[in-house]
Amino acid sequence: MTPRVTILGSGTCVPYHRRGPAGYVLEGGGETILVDSGSGTLDRLVRAGLDYRHLTAAAYTHPHPDHTADLAPLLFALNYTPGFQRVEPLAIFAPAGFDGFLAALEALYPGIRPRDYRIELSAAGDSELAQGEVAVVSRRVVHAGLPAVAYRFEMGGVRVVFSGDTEYCPGIVDVARDADLLVIEASSPFADRDPGPHLTAALAGRVATEAGARKVVLTHQYPSCDEHDMAALAGEHFAGEVLVAEDLMVLEVPPRP
Questions:
Q1: Among 4, 167, 206, 212, fewest CB within 10 Å belongs to which?
Q2: Rounded Cα–Cα distance for residues 23 and 47 (Å)
Q3: How confident is the model over 51-61, as a mean pLDDT?
Q4: What is the mean pLDDT of the chain?
Q5: DSSP symbols for 96-139
Q6: For residue 142, what are the domain limits?
Q7: Whole-angstrom Cα distance, residue 59 to residue 91?
Q8: Structural domain includes residue 257
């Protein structure tokens, strides 16, 4: 099948009727990969017609709750869904220290510890890993002093990149190199203000241009972003196609001509 991305959450930690916290699903190369899972991700996964039971992997960019809050509910559901017994391993890619984060979750919620399957946790830094036939390339990025990574997934000649949360830094440009689809945070419309540990629309456009990306989807939108033409602001710095993510948006990613 043509690789496909479903936007489960295009927002932030700020509760907002239009956008849920970060979450995405990438289907391709025989894999179904969850990328981040903020609160409400599992509900939107079901609404998108996707089956949490058939996830083959999950990739986490950093441990903030708007990116991880539904990890414990996911693991709990994999243990206790009536009539379902997961036996296949669940691969999890995550930055350094995530093993401790996962252990702390299991201490709080013993019921999430896998019963009949196992978690295969891989540390993602400046790494080249794999999930089946899908190459999983990660690069460390700068975000709020935390271990944080961005991911590039390569399958069938297609490159799909998820920035997670990041400042402008060499890592995000490197991992986004030649992306066919770059799902990149743009948390602020204001190019003349310090965005803190995030990107503005202008900086997202700059990253896309420097990386040679083909198509950009702006995500991680605070409510104030909807008062501005974020695509146009990014388009001042990037000549390719720019979309603004919406929850439950589905994007197919064909290879370059």
A1: 212
A2: 13
A3: 98
A4: 97
A5: TTHHHHHHHHHHH-GGGS-SSS-EEEEE-SSEEEEETTEEEEEE
A6: 4-252
A7: 8
A8: no
